[in-house]
Design brief:
This protein has 177 residues and is mostly helical. It has a domain of 101 residues. The chain has seven helices and no strands. It is globular and about 55 Å long.
């Protein structure tokens, strides 16, 4: 399942998409899922959704952890380490340089325009990532119902998302999903 250039392909792809991920790595999840599941078949949709759920349930830099799991699946421990660095290395260097420029021109009028222009881009990318993850995880009518209910509750109330996570874990733990 893993060919010799798989680690290189995964590392290059993660470095590329992490460099263009406005609003954080979740904005490029649709592309990563397509690359890992659709193009190369390194994981199934269910495996990808499971890794996403595990990474989201653990405090800390969850997308770095998720890409480490993907790297582990492709190349074992070295793949996990390289995937983690490919996920946070390039954007960290770019953000450091961009911050230096941004801070230097902190009073420039174009900064407000850029901030307002990036808001809809980031919102659209985050929504696209959510849709892709829901489609990967919704393998039964019950899972679809839970996704729709959770989205509705989150949009209509100010309920802490942790309660939704615990409810989903309970439903899954009791075998109801």
């Amino acid at each position: 399942m893993t060919y010799p250039s798989a680690p290189l392909a995964l590392t290059a792809h993660l470095a590329l998409v992490s460099s263009i991920s406005f609003g954080g790595f979740p904005t490029v999840l649709p592309d990563v899922r397509n690359f890992v599941v659709g193009t190369h078949g390194w994981m199934s949709n269910q495996d990808f959704a499971d890794v996403f759920a595990i990474a989201q349930s653990i405090p800390g830099p969850n997308m770095i952890l998720m890409m480490s799991f993907v790297g582990w699946k492709v190349w074992g421990f070295p793949g996990a380490v390289v995937s983690a660095f490919a996920t946070f290395g390039p954007p960290s260097a770019m953000y450091f340089a961009a911050y230096r420029v941004w801070d230097r021109f902190r009073d420039a009028p174009w900064q407000c325009i850029v901030r307002h222009g990036l808001v809809p881009v980031v919102m659209g990318l985050v929504i696209a990532g959510g849709v892709v993850m829901a489609r990967a995880a919704d393998t039964s009518w019950r899972a679809v119902a839970v996704t729709i209910t959770a989205a509705g509750v989150m949009l209509l109330t100010r309920l802490n998302p942790m309660w939704m996570l615990l409810a989903g874990a309970a439903l899954g733990g009791f075998g109801l999903l």
